[in-house]
Design a protein that fits this description.
Elements: H1 3-28, H2 37-54, H3 75-80, H4 98-103, H5 120-131, H6 154-157, H7 183-194, H8 205-217, H9 223-231, H10 237-246, H11 250-262, H12 281-292, H13 297-306, H14 315-324, H15 326-329, H16 340-360, H17 379-390, E1 392-395, E2 411-412, H18 428-457, H19 465-485, E3 497-498, E4 500-503, E5 510-513, E6 521-525, H20 548-555, H21 563-576, H22 597-609, H23 614-622, H24 635-640, E7 653-654, H25 657-668, H26 680-684, H27 688-698, H28 719-723, H29 742-750, H30 752-766, H31 772-784, H32 790-807, H33 814-833, H34 836-839, E8 840-841
Length: 842
């Protein structure tokens, strides 16, 4: 057997183990296909309203005559198709879906709707929906074929569990009084005892510290930290190590990323044009800092909705609060929309959707075109909120370009606010040169435009498209130079600019738009709050200002039944591997009911009582015996509870994309823990050339910062993140998908970044004192926080003893031996990085 075969045997054995372990993890977690919360939201927001507005008149049970035998008001009818014999929708296949073919007007004899083609964004949404499997929550038959309007009974709606205020309940008597260490444990124990289950044993200490380190910092513990924990036999050892990681600056980078998922953070607009947002990074840094400082969550919420309207203690505090409102400005937008009113209403809809899902766990945006199909939320509720955001000016900072019909300025922060800069200063002479270039370009653009206007006045229609495009290109160059110029003061120092929201001078109320159509305005709706979350006789209307401050206090109130529940459920989900409510962004009627409602209420009440402290809540959960359980598989328990609903063991969890990349760099010894100042997006400039340079730079080994500082351009996410299930940055994402697919194994085997990390890992080991076998032993400690088992150690020694001699057979020089050892060590390191144990937490 050759040396390479020896390595291949070890490497692919580890890869095979990885695949089996991952598959086992999926089986044990009870993964199954169904309409997810994100898919449900996508259907209700982007698909159902279009079907109702454009299709039901001719293709529903309520139609006078169903044209073509095609009904689109049920899931079955949509997939079955009509008299043509072709399926209306074939899940996963756009090419076999006749409804998509019809709406794209590919054939002259099948164009739907027949008079006006649907907007490209709508067609794109249908394509995306079909490709994701055409998830459709509708019943197979129409419950009310007469098309009667659903009447919402608010009194009944308020009886839903999530609209009731949390209350403390008495823990039932437990069979084993010795197991629980806390109130959390008592409720968990009550659940699994009721189901007839027995708890898994406590996790081994090496496993526990690795779990704690990753959960709090997203990085593995160092061998020194592991050994110190093992040697500390005091009762406070675990609490002290938890506090150590909570106090680390790495905590904010880990938990800030969780919120950025929820906040749909992105540094570009996405959609058809994908305009860059060079100043989005300020919001990212605000979030990281907020988690590191343990900013009270209610304050965190208020600042993101209305920070610009809140009292401030200093210019720095004021700037921080303004930056927080970037939450409302960073959402995805269709900048090429020619109708400014439609663009604004779509932006408001996106803001309502983001706030309601992230903070309230409700899909309020589903009421834009009609009363909510499931929750007690009316169209009047929606347009009461819409007036609040129409009365606010959203500033996102884009210059007018050929396909950007909706530019915006930014908010300038006070020079004394102490904000870091994402750009380097320039000299006064460089500023003067840049200003001259802009003035020249602007003059050229104006001259070209005047020439065209003169020709039009003389009625010379000899203007052709090429002339107009040249004029547009000249204006684009001028606008791009103006955007660069606006970054600096006259002396070349950098201006502090931020995305965010400010109140308009005069607030406005929005009309209720029939079917969400701007052309069908109805009654004007006063700005106000959501009725179902208010007491029956509580005033809901807002008479002064935009109403954002009122909305912020309303959402962040301890009396709000949802806000604390939603956040503690998010915290529980990240620490336990599954939420008490498994639809973290939807606590409405279509969301899942809590597995432990009394525990959820206890956590929510405790969260508020302890000052809305995220760190305190994390500490309380981590100190529970429930968190410190092993992930041991049990046949009898699994037969009763395969999904681990009753938490009889810890869920095995795969590292997310960022933790996986960061861990590779960490064990390789190349991770740069210095935070990035700004973002590569801020320095990319305009145009394709800047983007090409950006992606080239972040793919090199020298860009070894934490993954939270990677640029997040919508629809152009870095490959390392997309392969390992990075979410859609245009949507609220409280829970990421976790897949185990061949492309991930291939990536770990072939990707240059992985190979570079393996080489650096090997180089680090080469500097470790001792023998070659000592270095391999240390590699296990770095990668897995443990030493090799006896069986593994035997295999490792066999591999090492055979690889180098066989690789250098016939080449006895020392140089050949050194080269073979380097190759062997790098290959060994890559096998560790590609293993299941490296990717999973037990």
């Amino acid at each position: 057997m050759t040396a390479m075969k020896v390595f291949s045997s070890l490497f692919f054995s580890l890869i095979w183990t990885a695949a089996l372990s991952a598959a086992s993890a999926e089986i044990m977690s009870g993964a199954h296909a169904e309409v997810s919360a994100d898919q449900l939201q996508f259907f209700e927001k982007n698909i159902r309203p279009v079907l109702v507005e454009h299709c039901y008149k001719c293709h529903s049970a309520a139609s006078d005559k169903i044209k073509g035998g095609l009904t689109l008001d049920t899931k079955q009818g949509l997939q079955l198709g009509g008299e043509s014999g072709h399926a209306g929708v074939t899940p996963g296949s756009v090419g076999e879906s006749s409804i998509y073919e019809a709406m794209t007007w590919q054939r002259d004899d099948m164009q739907m709707p027949p008079k006006n083609k649907l907007p490209e964004e709508v067609i794109s949404n249908f394509k995306k929906w079909i490709e994701m499997g055409a998830p459709d929550p509708r019943e197979q038959t129409v419950a009310n074929a007469t098309g009667g309007r659903r009447e919402i009974n608010m009194k009944e709606g308020r009886q839903h569990w999530s609209f009731q205020k949390p209350k403390l309940s008495v823990v039932p008597e437990l069979k084993d009084a010795s197991w629980a260490r806390s109130t959390i444990d008592q409720w968990v124990q009550a659940g699994y005892e009721k189901a007839g289950l027995k708890p898994a044993p406590d996790a081994e200490r090496r496993t526990l510290i690795r779990r704690i380190a990753f959960d709090l910092t997203g990085l593995p513990p160092s061998p020194e930290e592991v050994e110190a924990y093992l040697k500390d036999t005091s009762p406070q050892a675990t609490e002290q190590v938890i506090q150590q990681y909570l106090d680390s600056p790495r905590f904010g980078e880990r938990w800030g990323r969780y919120w950025l998922d929820v906040a749909r953070y992105g540094e570009s607009s996405g959609k058809e044009v994908n305009v860059l947002y060079p100043h989005a990074w300020r919001y990212r840094d605000y979030v990281i800092d907020a988690f590191n400082r343990d900013k009270p969550y209610d304050q965190f919420v208020k600042e993101q909705i209305a920070g610009d309207l809140m009292r401030h203690e200093s210019q720095r505090d004021q700037a921080e609060k303004i930056v927080a409102t970037g939450f409302l400005a960073i959402g995805s937008k269709g900048h090429n929309n020619r109708d400014r009113r439609q663009f604004t209403m779509d932006m408001v809809d996106e803001q309502i959707d983001a706030i309601s899902q992230s903070m309230l766990g409700l899909t309020l945006a589903c009421a834009r075109c009609h009363d909510h199909k499931f929750d007690p939320v009316t169209q009047r509720d929606y347009y009461a909120l819409a007036g609040i955001f129409l009365s606010s000016e959203t500033l996102y900072g884009t210059n007018r370009q050929l396909q950007n019909n909706n530019p915006s300025s930014l908010i300038e922060l006070e020079p004394g606010a102490g904000q870091i800069s994402g750009l380097a200063s320039i000299s006064a002479s460089e500023y003067a040169e840049l200003k001259q270039r802009y003035e020249t370009a602007n003059a050229s653009a104006e001259e070209a435009e005047r020439a065209v206007l003169a020709q039009r006045r003389e009625r010379r229609e000899n203007n052709n498209a090429a002339d107009l495009l040249r004029i547009r290109a000249a204006r684009d160059r001028s606008e791009a130079l103006k955007a660069d110029l606006d970054q600096f003061y006259d002396d070349g120092s950098v201006r502090s600019l931020a995305m965010g929201v400010l109140d308009r001078d005069l607030p406005v109320n929005s009309p209720l738009l029939v079917r969400g159509d701007l052309k069908q305005p109805g009654d004007v709706v006063p700005r106000g709050l959501v009725e179902v979350l208010c007491a029956e006789d509580e005033p809901r209307n807002i008479s002064q200002g935009s109403g954002r401050l009122d909305l912020a206090w309303f959402i962040a109130s301890s009396d709000n039944p949802l806000t604390a529940r939603v956040m503690v459920n998010r915290i529980w989900s990240k620490l336990m591997g599954a939420g008490i409510v498994t639809t973290p962004d939807n606590f409405g009627f279509m969301g899942q009911k809590p597995s432990h409602p009394e525990l959820l209420d206890y956590l929510a009440i405790s969260f508020v009582k302890k000052g809305w402290s995220v760190k305190s809540m994390i500490r309380e959960i981590m100190l529970s015996r429930s968190y410190q359980m092993a992930s041991t598989y049990d046949v009898a328990n699994y037969a009763v509870d395969p999904d681990n609903k009753w938490h009889w063991r810890m869920n095995q969890r795969r590292l997310d994309a960022e933790a996986l990349r960061d861990s590779m760099l960490a064990v390789a010894g190349t991770l740069n823990l210095y935070p990035v100042d700004g973002s590569p997006v801020a320095r990319a400039g305009e145009g394709r050339e800047g983007l090409v340079t950006l992606f080239r730079d972040i793919s090199t080994p020298s860009y070894n910062y934490r993954s939270i500082y990677l640029p997040i351009l919508r629809d152009q996410i870095p490959e390392f993140l997309t392969v390992f299930d990075f979410p859609d940055a245009s949507l609220v994402n409280g829970e990421r998908d976790t897949t185990n697919v061949p492309s991930q194994s291939l990536f770990l085997m072939n990707n240059p970044q992985v190979l570079s990390a393996a080489d650096a890992f090997a180089e680090r080991l080469g500097k470790y004192p001792g023998t070659a076998l000592d270095r391999l032993h240390y590699a296990y400690q770095l990668a897995f926080s443990r030493v090799p088992s006896a069986e593994e150690w035997t295999a490792i020694k066999s591999f090492w003893s055979r690889f180098v001699p066989e690789a250098t057979e016939g080449k006895g020089s020392q140089q050949a031996k050194d080269r073979a050892q380097k190759v062997a060590l790098s290959a060994f390191c890559q096998s560790l990085l590609a293993s299941a144990e490296f990717r999973y937490l037990n």
